What does this fold into?
Amino acid sequence: MSESFDLRNEPWIPVRVRGQSVQVGLRQLFHRAHEIDDIELPVPPAASGLLRILAALASRIAQEDGLGLCDEDTAEDAEEWFALRARVLKQGRFDPNAVDAYFDDETLTGRFDLFDAQRPFLQDPRLRSECVDTKGRPNSSGINKLVIGRPTGVNGAVLFGHFNDAAPVAVPAAVAAWHLIAMLYYGPSGQCTPRRITTVRAGSGDAGPLRKAISFHTWASDLFTTLVLGVPTPGSGAEGNDLCPWEDELPDPLGTLRPYTWPGRMLTGRARHAVLLVPSSDGREAVDAYVTWSTHQPSPAVRDPHVILDMPRSGEGAPFARPADGHRALWRDLDALLLIGDSQTQRPSALDHLPRSLAERLRVRAYGFDQDGQQRDNIWFEATTPPVLAWQQHTNPELSPYPGMAEHVARCHQAAEDVADKLRYAARLAWKLATDPVEDSSAKVRLDPKKQGPWAALAVSRFWAAGEQVFWELATPDLVDSAPYPPFVQIALDALDEAIGARSADVRVARARNRARTVIRSALPKPTMTAPGK
It folds into this structure.
């Protein structure tokens, strides 16, 4: 059998269609996008990258009367482009003829094949001859280097399976495609398999463009709408001849990088890794892989449309993508998704300029990968909000059907953060007073940062667990003018009692608890004094 796995037709993308879980290829995905409820890819960093690839494909396929969403002339007039997008959305599905015309284009022959000899999808076939040892023999990275979560090298820890480089276990071709995408977007920096075409950093690479980031996507009730809304609005990237990697020739790894043009290259052409999969004899599995660097050139300036941008606390330096935190719930970022933004924070541009007719039904899907900037991977996660994008703040308040909701969400979030800080301090204070009481109970207590005690972490953990329910109860237009602090203070008091034991018979613990509760109550805003006669 031939070493071929055609991603256009092979079933490799798990989706849910009318409640049923199935796997589809790219062609069937676009044919049935209007029927697909969700993507069920179990590797969130791969799903994040895949959505960018699918949005780039949608920009080529989605069209009305032959005019596509990637048309540069239409993009010169933003209002004209938005009108075209509205007409495409009104069609309710991708035109099957346009889908087939794109995937059957003769110029793309073999370029969607995972194992094509000449131009495998999103891979560099030159690695066969460039990743060699000092004697010119092939020097692959091993399949474990590709698959996130597997240990690599002689000292790799065995956490999720007994995999090692001495006895590699092949992966199905579909799974290899997932991890290929995850590597190109979230791959590590540092040491890698040497690519012997230069003596400068031959075995060292840079981190992937989404390394340690959390990615936010507009989420509709069907994949067709999700993908059309995932096409970045004009002005998000440089203008020019826009080609995705599978549409272009292989880049010069030592040459200057091309600008990240709108909309395809900015979504799919920013990889800092080069990968080549080695197939089994029947093309059903990947048995080995080469993973190395793709370029050492500085990356051209471009803003990823799916990340929150934060400024450094010092106020100096370039804005950076908000990092993923496996211990931080999605609702704590909701205000940053709804507010217009300021000099410190900018919401994802993909959430701007959404059709008002759809806003009431649009949710936000987040994909995060908690990593450090180099090699360590901690945890990945996926989360989806309720329909909240109708609450967005607009520069023109008349455009908002729920005026003040974005600001109310921000107040609720800020209240939760403030009370959590008070709770953390109060729990540490209680531990200090219970274990090392001071002689003067009214004196200021100095806390040792190295002696946190066991109560703070437990109390804060319980506070955030209960805080999510309280937040969503407050986050409703009916309570837009309500005070958010009292309910958060109450769950902080409950969390403190659960952490230290409200029924403790120890007098020192009881006194420490009472003082800690006073600290927490101090988070409540002081009542406004009204002058007599007013």
